[in-house]
């Protein structure tokens, strides 16, 4: 009885094969899925924005360094292209010149060939004349010799008198002398013609050698030209490759700049520390010193705390009212210059143009008000810089947005020399930012900005020291 009970207990403790298989399957699936769950968990962990910005800024430095190298390669390749094009152009000119010289040489060779042929014909005719003269001279000599061999009886019988015989003999001698002179002249003519022919042959031979050399030079130039054209194609391909690399690198840099800018998420009217973080990031994009940018924005709107105390009311006259008491104000906005762009800007951003604060006119300075947002851009000027801002942020710019307004102000200052970071350049840029001129009438503004910037520079150095502790 006891043994039977024990067997039942062992049977209960024994696991069935189905259950065992199910457990093993669960373990196997867990082993497969666990790494994925861990990876997803890692991916879902939030990255510290400050750490991400530091990483992005380091990556941006590397990309900007690559851009400088690519720019150098492009400049070098452009110079190589220019050199190769100049060399090819020079070789083309040389080949054209050689072609003309070869044509000229061939024409001269043909002319010399004709002259040689004419000379040879003249030599043949002269030789024929020499042979004829020799034959005549031989006949005369034979006649003279025959006359001289006659006996006195023959002379007396053949001639009526003795004087006739001697006259005939003298005539023969005279004819013989003239024939000899003629023969000598003909021989000299033949020698002269043969000399001419030899000279023409030599000239023709020399000219043929020159043409042969020129032909070889042309072939060599054509070969060099072909090589240069081949290298030019390689250079052009390399040039296009560098341009593509530059475009891709610039695009990547722009994406990183946009991401850095996006990470600085601050509300309106930021603290000085937040404003400094924006200004510091913009220095990498524009080259404008953070202290100067903050000084300008302090002078304009107390870094976003005062973005305007007037509303536009009449789009035809540009008149408006004071925000806090509704008192009428003239010259809130210049109709011919700023009304239309202001209405366009507010419409694009979904803002009510008649309840959006802008700056009031300043009686002591004169002119119109109408400046918008923390950077106090007048609408017509904002329209110039909004596309530049959009290229960096990738979004429709908003002059009342802290980040967009800071960026536009930095770009404006950089355009007028502030990126040089010298006192004179920064003072001039600040003056132009205020009045569009460096007229000393408004030097109070430039002097004030430089003074504020100097104080801010000390504050920034203190912030940096504390950050390192």
Question: How would you describe this protein?
Answer:
Strands 1-2-3 form a three-stranded antiparallel β-sheet, with no helix packed on it. The protein is rod-shaped and about 155 Å long. It is 77% helix and 2% strand. The chain has two domains: 191 residues, Helix Hairpins (Orthogonal Bundle), CATH 1.10.287; 198 residues, no CATH class. Helix 10 crosses helix 11. By secondary structure, it is mostly helical. It is built from twelve helices and three strands.
Q: What are the defining features of this structure?
A:
single chain; mainly alpha; Helix Hairpins; 3-stranded antiparallel sheet
Brief overview:
This protein is mainly alpha-helical and 469 residues long.
Roughly how many Å apart are the termini? 83 Å
Secondary-structure content class? mainly alpha
- H/E series, N to C? HHHHHHHEEEHHHHH
Task: Provide the low-confidence segments as ranges.
Answer: 10-14, 31-46, 261-267
Number of domains: 2
Main β-sheet, spatial strand arrangement: 1-2-3
Q: Kindly report the oligomeric state of this protein.
A: single chain
How many helices? 12
The total of beta strands comes to 3
* Rg (CA only): 54 Å
The percentage helix is over 70%
- As a percent range, the share of strand residues is under 5%
Can you tell me the overall shape?
rod-shaped
The major β-sheet equals: 3 strands, antiparallel
- Overall mean confidence score, pLDDT: 77
Topology:
Layout: H1 2-13, H2 17-44, H3 49-149, H4 152-158, H5 162-263, H6 272-286, H7 290-301, E1 310-312, E2 320-322, E3 328-329, H8 335-349, H9 379-393, H10 402-415, H11 423-435, H12 443-468
Antiparallel strand pairs: 1-2, 2-3
Helix pairs in contact: 3-5, 6-7, 6-10, 7-12, 9-10, 10-11, 11-12
């Amino acid at each position: 009885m006891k043994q039977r009970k024990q067997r039942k207990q062992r049977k209960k403790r024994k696991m069935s094969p189905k259950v065992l298989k199910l457990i093993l399957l669960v373990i196997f699936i867990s082993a497969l899925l666990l790494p994925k769950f861990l990876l997803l968990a890692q991916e879902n962990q939030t990255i510290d924005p400050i750490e991400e910005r530091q990483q992005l800024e380091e990556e941006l430095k590397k990309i900007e360094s690559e851009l400088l190298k690519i720019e150098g390669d492009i400049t070098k390749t452009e110079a190589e292209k220019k050199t190769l094009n100049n060399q090819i152009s020079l070789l083309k000119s040389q080949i054209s010149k050689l072609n003309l010289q070869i044509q000229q040489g061939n024409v001269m060779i043909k002319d010399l060939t004709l002259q040689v042929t004419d000379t040879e014909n003249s030599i043949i005719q002269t030789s024929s004349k020499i042979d004829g003269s020799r034959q005549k001279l031989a006949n005369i000599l034979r006649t003279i010799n025959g006359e001289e061999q006659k006996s006195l009886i023959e002379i007396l019988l053949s001639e009526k008198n003795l004087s006739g015989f001697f006259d005939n003999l003298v005539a023969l001698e005279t004819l013989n002398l003239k024939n000899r002179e003629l023969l000598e002249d003909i021989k000299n003519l033949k020698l002269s013609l043969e000399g001419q022919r030899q000279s023409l042959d030599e000239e023709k031979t020399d000219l043929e050698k020159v043409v042969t050399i020129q032909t070889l030079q042309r072939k060599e130039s054509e070969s060099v030209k072909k090589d240069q054209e081949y290298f030019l194609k390689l250079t052009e391909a390399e040039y296009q490759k560098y341009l593509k690399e530059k475009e891709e690198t610039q695009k990547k840099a722009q994406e990183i700049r946009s991401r850095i800018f996006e990470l600085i998420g601050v509300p309106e009217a930021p603290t000085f520390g937040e404003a400094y973080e924006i200004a510091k990031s913009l220095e990498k994009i524009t080259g404008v010193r953070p202290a100067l940018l903050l000084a300008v924005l302090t002078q304009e709107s107390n870094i976003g705390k005062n973005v305007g105390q007037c509303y536009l009311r009449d789009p035809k006259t540009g008149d408006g009212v004071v925000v806090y008491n509704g008192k009428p104000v003239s010259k809130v906005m210049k109709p011919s210059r700023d009304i239309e762009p202001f209405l366009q800007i507010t419409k694009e951003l979904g803002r009510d143009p008649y309840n959006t604060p802008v700056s009031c006119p300043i009686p002591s300075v004169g002119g119109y008000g109408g400046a918008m947002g923390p950077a106090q851009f007048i609408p017509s000027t904002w329209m110039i810089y909004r596309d530049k801002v959009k290229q960096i942020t990738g979004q429709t710019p908003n002059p009342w947005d802290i980040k967009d307004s800071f960026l536009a102000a930095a770009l404006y200052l950089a355009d007028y020399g502030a990126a040089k970071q010298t006192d004179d350049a920064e003072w001039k840029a600040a003056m132009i930012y205020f009045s569009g001129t460096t007229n000393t009438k408004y030097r109070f503004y430039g002097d004030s900005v430089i003074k504020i910037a100097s104080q801010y520079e000390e504050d920034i150095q203190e912030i940096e020291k504390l950050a390192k502790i």
